[in-house]
Amino acid sequence: MPTDVNCRERIRSHLNRLYPGDVEGTLAELVARIDKAASAIPARRAVWDQTDCVLITYGDQVSQDGEAPLETLRNFLLRHDLESLLSIVHVLPFFPYSSDDGFSVIDYRRVDPVLGDWSDVAALGKSFDLMFDLVVNHCSRHSEWFQKYLAGEEPYAGYFIEADPCDDVSLVTRPRSHPLLTPFETSRETRHVWTTFSDDQVDLNFAAPSVLIEMIDVLLFYLQRGARIIRLDAIAYLWKELGTSCIHLPQTHEVVKLMRTVVDAVAPGTILLTETNVPHKENVSYYGNGDEAQMVYQFSLAPLLAEALQTGDASVLNHWLAGLEPTPPGTTVLNFTASHDGIGIRPLEGIMPSDRAERFVEAVQRRGGRVSMKRNTDGSESPYELNITYFDVVADPDRPDPLSHVRRFLAGQAVMLSLKGIPGIYFHSLVGTPNDLAGVRQTGRARTINRRKFRLEELEATLDRAGSPQAQVFEGYCRLLDVRRRQPAFHPEALQRVIRTEAPAVVAVVRESTTPFQRLLVLANLGHQAVPVEVEGLIGAQPKRDLLNLDPVGPAVALAPYQVRWLEF
Fold first, then answer.
1. 1 has a pLDDT exceeding 60
2. Which residues contact 244 (CB under 8 A, 6 or more apart)?
3. Where would I find the H helices in 367-436?
């Protein structure tokens, strides 16, 4: 049985830290649910390698009449042979929802019928490994759980967090600027309920053991449905305690440890991925001592790389890369530049000087982007997230040349693909989508700028249009992925070493694997002027070949503007 004596004792230990006192009833119920689910959980890959790459997409990212969008998405990916380039598809929340493009979940166990059904998810899973979101912090106010809370039914009366509007919540870390508490009319008169992200997203009360049991049961259900990666959405805010910041509390880390114990017992090889858009040191705390998440997002990369491409100065990016500490054994990072959310500003804290960060925010606005704010503990507001597509964040309004724009964008993506970890590619980066300003005007929401949905015929026509920026991005990106997946030096655990050069625009990174042995020098020119580089002086050897370019290589190479070289030694 998966819950042998040792596993049961580990679960008991987690519960004792969460709920000091008698936990035997909670333990028995949790173990019963684990044992019931275990036999229906399929096996998954136990290791990762350089072939692993995640595509981040909505279930209805591509649609056509007469077909479920999940089926259309699968057919699009297969038609373009992307199953040979991408190993994992992260389908953003595909459950019935009421807002936030899926992150206000009404029913955790159903597929939104607008997208398809579980058979469509299973069909996608035959060609790709799957990543599911466990939207763990909150659910929709329209969910059955919350409606039963409003009616005062047990156990749902304890599923959500009530507070007195007179309570002092000034210490609470806020990722949004709206009020923290939302009044609702219940069977017990007006109650003020904790709503961290919006008044449609009501926070779950993990201080109630019944909520923990319910969400572990949802986790087990996703494992049964074949998820290889479980993304723990907004996990940092999970546990609330008045008088604290209500972020990264010890109980939150304990819940992640409990989830790790469960998945290791019933589905070895499952990867827990924590989504914590916070400063780097806080972000990597979710590795724990190797007993929490196996993977965290590399949140600082996106803004640092975008700013370097805008300015042609990679000094801050290089300094950060050089200072990255190795992750604990058996863990890695998800490197990404774009996602369904915007580009976080908090991950720059302690890395980029504030005046330079302010100029970066202004530069994003010049390129058509929006700035989302957060509420600070003193009542003020400050930038939290930049809403813009990654294709447009690296545009150059002073030199608006389409060819250079594509080269600049692909240079940034090639750097991301070169770094230690597993790459995550947002669908809109794969096809070079510009800002959806019309969508923002329609919805009134800044995040819509990066969440455009396509009709299949429209997208195919764009990609078939020879010479279009989107066609060039798609073709160039596919080539990068094809070359990357065949290089052992790009294994997630292969050595990474940053080399400083005299040129501020140049990023130079050595990647080296042992079995089989391969050494690569990644050279990227993020500036608009050509740069000569003495390769032999950097690495003490002469490269054999350039994996990306046909140009001859020797002791010295020339880097054209926005050129990336993967040099093998």
1. no
2. 171, 172
3. 390-393, 402-418, 427-430
Distance of CA 197 to the CA centre of its chain: 17
Contact (Cβ atoms closer than 8 angstroms) between residue 109 and residue 218 = yes
How wide is the angle at C-alpha 489 spanned by C-alphas 278 and 415, nearest 5°? Answer: 45
Task: Copy the structure tokens of residue 125.
Answer: 């899973």
Nearest to 341 by CA among 295, 306, 384: 384
Mean pLDDT of 221-228: 98
What pLDDT digit, counting tens, does each position of 269-312 carry? 999 999 999 999 999 999 999 999 999 999 999 999 999 999 99
Q: CA 175 to CA 203: how far, in whole Å?
A: 14
**What Cα–Cα distance (Å) separates residue 474 from each residue in 53, 85, 409, 465?**
16, 12, 11, 11
User: Among all residues, which ones are annotated catalytic?
Assistant: 233
Give DSSP secondary structure letters for 120-179: HHHHHHHHSEEEEEEE-SEEETTSHHHHHHHTT-TTGGGSB-B--TTS--TTS--SSSS-
- At 306-362, the pLDDT tens digits run 999 999 999 999 999 999 999 999 999 999 999 999 999 999 999 999 999 999 999
Confidence of residue 33 (pLDDT cuts 50, 70, 90): very high
Distance CA 276, CA 381 (A): 20
What does the block give as tokens for 273?
Answer: 């991925």
How far apart (Å, rounded) are the C-alpha atoms in residues 293 and 533? Answer: 39
**For the chain, what percent of residues have pLDDT higher than 70?**
100
- Alpha-carbon gap, residue 432 to 294, rounded angstroms: 30
CA 390 – CA 125 distance, rounded (Å) = 28
Amino acid at 27: L
Stated pTM of the model: 0.97
Q: Rounded to an integer, what distance in angstroms lies between the CA atom of residue 157 and that of residue 148?
A: 7
**Measured between alpha carbons, how far apart are the two ends of the chain, in Å?**
49
Contacts (Cβ under 8 Å, ≥6 apart) of 327: 284, 287, 333
8 Å CB contact between 50 and 488: yes
Let me know: does 317 contact 305? Beta carbons within 8 Å: yes
Write down the pLDDT at residue 3: 81
**Beta bridge pairs of residue 198:** 201
DSSP notation for 440-481: HHHH--GGGGG---EEHHHHHHHHHSTT-HHHHHHHHHHHHH
How far is 142 from 135, CA to CA, in rounded Å? 15
What is d(CA 108, CA 143) in angstroms, rounded to the nearest whole number? 9
* Domains, in order of start, for the chain: 495-568 (2.60.40.1180)
Distance CA 301, CA 414 (A): 13
CA angle 37/39/43 to nearest 5° reads 105
Taking alpha carbons only, the member of 491, 169, 526, 146 closest to residue 316 is: 526
Residues 6+ apart with CB under 8 A from 87: 51, 52, 53, 54, 128, 129
Quote the Cα angle for 274-277-282, to 5°: 75
